[in-house]
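Supplementary notes for students who missed Thursday's class. We covered one full example, reproduced here. Read the sequence, then the structure, then the short commentary at the end.
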Amino acid sequence: MTALAPARPLKKRLQSTGLWLLTFVLMVIMCVPGLWVMLSAFRPNREILAKPPIWVPEALTLGNFAKIFGFGAEQVGIPVASYFANSMIIALTSTVIALIIGMAGGYAFARYRFRFKGGIFLGLMLFRAVPGIALSLPIFMVWSRLGLIDTKPGLIIIYVSLNVPFTVWLIDGFFRQIPMSLSEAAQVDGCTRWQAFWKIEFPLARSGIAAAGCSRS
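Structure (token representation):
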């Protein structure tokens, strides 16, 4: 028994080392496509389109970025600044609206009892389960009649409606983890319902609200 005792820790160390090496190799393989795309952004077109492919870059350049953003003699006719501004407006607006609605809904589901509460919550989750591609044709038909095709309000409405169920579910879980006794104690000390929420419950749930906002943006 004493002769076999030192072999067991050695065997465990070898297994752990082998597992780490296997994990490292798999992670490298998974990162290769992303690394290739990132390097292609800094490579000239002759290297990107070369056959056979050039695996090790011969030269790195910022010329591709200069062309896209309109610097230098050669320019690409892509309004990157306009695309970026539109994306920021749509993403920020839809995120803020979804957070406001989701925070109100999540707090209501976590703190209040009302009729059909379970059915409404289940309906929200079932709506979230519907794949977005299945809604593309109905949304296109409705939006074409309303004149919302290719408009910022049209995209914002779609993103908000798709994101609200998940936001409600996520924030509901965070508010359920906050003891109701904290809010009740604040109200006993003279706070209104709104003050108890804003001064006690909201600061405790800020991490969850921030996580919901980051996951939606």
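Commentary. Residues 7-68 form one domain. Residues 21 and 27 are 10 Å apart (CA to CA). If anything here is unclear, bring it to office hours.
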